[in-house]
């Protein structure tokens, strides 16, 4: 039996440290109704900064030949790669999901390296099998 994938969420939890003055200013904006809560303010600020740096992100994606978005790795695709004697080297900005029916042996045979700037969702057995190949 394969391990189930973790429940897919549309966000990741992060922790940040803020000084009391910055936090107070955020709380004031929340209190005044500009934002529904602290998280709403922080998400909005991050989105605005990412939009402002959009050209730099796109240039970096192109320079590093990163795939952008969601990359699903299904058993059939990995079996084809293995049968062709090829090895997959993935670089993804976003989310990589490895299907729960992929065996650890198949993953090791078909995946040479995997770099994810974002989130990797894979069963624990796959993570363990690829631990020296995940960056």
TrEMBL record:
Pfam families on file: RHH_8
CDD domains in the record: RHH_NikR_HicB-like
Highest taxon listed in the record's lineage: Bacteria
Single Gene Ontology BP annotation: regulation of DNA-templated transcription
Entry protein name: CopG family transcriptional regulator
Native source species: Cereibacter ovatus
């Amino acid at each position: 039996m394969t391990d189930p994938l973790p429940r897919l969420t549309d966000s990741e939890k992060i922790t940040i440290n803020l000084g009391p003055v910055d936090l107070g200013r955020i709380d004031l904006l929340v209190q005044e109704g500009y934002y529904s809560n602290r998280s709403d303010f922080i998400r909005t600020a991050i989105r605005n900064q990412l939009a402002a740096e959009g050209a730099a992100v796109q240039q970096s994606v192109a320079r590093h030949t990163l795939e952008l978005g969601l990359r699903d790795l299904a058993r059939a695709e990995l079996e084809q790669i293995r049968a062709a004697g090829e090895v997959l080297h993935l670089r993804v900005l976003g989310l990589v999901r490895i299907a729960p029916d992929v065996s650890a042996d198949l993953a090791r045979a078909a995946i040479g390296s995997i770099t994810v700037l974002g989130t990797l969702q894979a069963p624990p057995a796959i993570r363990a099998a690829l631990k020296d190949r995940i960056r």
